[in-house]
TrEMBL record:
Top-level division of the source organism's lineage: Bacteria
GO molecular function terms listed in the Swiss-Prot or TrEMBL record: imidazoleglycerol-phosphate dehydratase activity
Pathway: Amino-acid biosynthesis; L-histidine biosynthesis; L-histidine from 5-phospho-alpha-D-ribose 1-diphosphate: step 6/9
The protein's name: Imidazoleglycerol-phosphate dehydratase
Keyword Phosphoprotein (UniProt): no
Compartments in which it is found: Cytoplasm
HAMAP family: HisB
Family: Belongs to the imidazoleglycerol-phosphate dehydratase family.
Reactions mediated catalytically: D-erythro-1-(imidazol-4-yl)glycerol 3-phosphate = 3-(imidazol-4-yl)-2-oxopropyl phosphate + H2O
Gene: hisB
Species of origin: Siminovitchia thermophila
Length: 195
């Protein structure tokens, strides 16, 4: 089974995370940021991955360190769980509608981190979650997972719907990209490796 555990402890956050790419039977997320928990649960459920996450962050300041550091740790764990990436489909794309909103994510598990992000949110916060942190999470995840990631809100009015559509699209695109294609020998690259 492709899985990895990761811990990170700084003066700002303490994170304990486990990811299971082939076993979605358990999803347990506790970050102290309710809306972020909801988004990560949507990501894991639609990504068909198991995710166990406990975060203690400096929420008396704000949710920035909790969200960004979670992206770092999750990205590293996904990268480790993928190992040498032998046999993976590598690319994934998903459009997700959510009521008035439509979001798009396309990614390449290339080993070359990159983020292109387009999304504007009318509300600056949802609960104790600052909406500008959506981009911070996507960037931290992409750069630590070694993923080329393009994410875009095509349209929508409701901030909650736009962000949730993005997280679901990220999960669904990742689920597609990490699938094993039994017809592949080695990795899907003319270079012979993905790093």
């Amino acid at each position: 089974m492709r899985q990895a555990s990761s811990k990170r402890e700084t003066a700002e956050t303490k994170i304990d995370l486990a990811v299971r790419l082939d076993d979605a039977s358990e999803i347990s997320i506790k970050t102290g940021v309710g809306f972020f928990d909801h988004m990560l649960h949507a990501f894991a459920r639609h990504g068909r991955i198991g995710l166990t996450l406990n975060v203690e962050g400096d929420l008396h300041i704000d949710s920035h360190h909790t969200v960004e550091d979670t992206g770092i740790v999750l990205g590293k764990a996904v990268r480790e769980a993928l190992g040498d990436k032998r046999g993976i489909v590598r690319f994934g794309t998903s459009y997700v509608p959510m009521d008035d909103a439509l979001a798009f994510v396309s990614l390449d598990i290339s080993g070359r981190p990159f983020l292109h992000f387009e999304g504007e949110f009318h509300l600056t916060s949802l609960g104790n979650f600052d909406t500008e942190l959506v981009r911070e999470f996507f960037q931290a995840f992409a750069f630590n997972a070694g993923i080329t990631l393009h994410a875009r809100v095509l349209y929508g009015e409701n901030t909650h719907h736009k962000i949730e559509a993005l997280f679901k699209a990220l999960g669904r695109a990742l689920a597609e990209a990490v699938k094993i294609d039994p017809s592949l020998e080695g990795v899907l690259s003319t270079k012979g490796l993905l790093e």
